[in-house]
Amino acid sequence: MKRPTIADIAREAGVSKVAVSYALNDQPGVSEQTRAKIKAIAQEVGWRPSSAARALNGARARAVGLAVCRPPRTLSVEPFFMELISGIESELAPRSIALMLQTVSSHADEIELYRVWWGEGRVDGALLVDLHVSDARVPALAALDLPVVALGPPQSAGALPTVWSDDATSMRETVAYLAALGHRALARVAGLPKLAHTAVRDAAFEAACRAAGLPDPVVTHTDYSGEDGARATRRLLIAEQRPTAIIYDNDVMAVAGLSVAQELAIDVPHELSLVAWDDSPFTQAVRPQLTALTRDIAAYGACAARTLLAAVDKGAVTSSQVPAAQLVPRASTSPPRRG
């Protein structure tokens, strides 16, 4: 079935296409009776204005864009993104605003995608995720005059409003907890080093270890996947000087790390303590249950969506700090076994 057009409505109503245009755009030039008849026919046939027509008329698209520069499989295995999207949708859906979601392979592709979406009137604004330490998307999107809200550290967002949490405070709390348990050899299986939040966590981890009087920690960067997390854990655990505690940058890698420890017959938590960043059902489905840094990711997404909608409405918009992740001790951490 072809998409209904203004010509179809005009033919059904027995009026000109100009009259239909006036009626559907609430412009003068037709009687109220004719306007009501045309709108009823439009609703009956399922007519919707095209994005190009909306752009020409300056009308709202009633959609916001979210491009993710990661492999599509990331969205199927990374609980963070699904929780984030659920929070975004909790603000958009009640307002009948759509979320345009697309994965891209590079920042250049992402910038071009936003140019197309904005130029064709397909979105009213955009959410920018996975900020880089030096991020070419920030000045490019600012130059488009597209309403944008970034999720991540403000220092990497330029003039864009951001929604962010204090990862440094969460990292200091975790290191202090492990040091209080008696751990001296700490390691971290981190995410991509070019990501701004990874850099914040890297710096905070090393500074917290120094403040606690611990030896220089080991940091291994990965792509966040379970496979890469398992490889990194295996390298740490077969090393001559293996850590007694490992902090993971996401829950997927922490679960994979637990499997590697069990594969090598290393007792968790007595020989090795494990901590996952971002709590999820994964961390509580395994045995032992994983100590985790928990935060309300859905609320994080909802805050970002509200901030973006305010920007779209030309309201006063400022950056928002959401609560930092809180440490929840479970069975995967304990004092290290002596001897």
Automatic annotation (TrEMBL):
An MF annotation (GO) of this entry: DNA-binding transcription factor activity
The record's annotation in InterPro entries points to: HTH_LacI, LacI/GalR-like_sensor, Lambda_DNA-bd_dom_sf, Peripla_BP_I
Keyword set, alphabetical order = DNA-binding, Transcription, Transcription regulation
CDD domains found in the cross-reference section: HTH_LacI, PBP1_LacI_sugar_binding-like
Tell me if Transcription is a UniProt keyword of this record: yes
The UniProt record lists the keyword Transcription: yes
Q: Which ranges of the sequence are coiled-coil?
A: none
Q: One Pfam family, short name please?
A: LacI
Q: Show where the HTH lacI-type domain sits.
A: 4-58
- Which interval of the chain is the signal sequence? none
Protein name (record): Catabolite control protein A
Q: Which gene encodes it?
A: ccpA_1
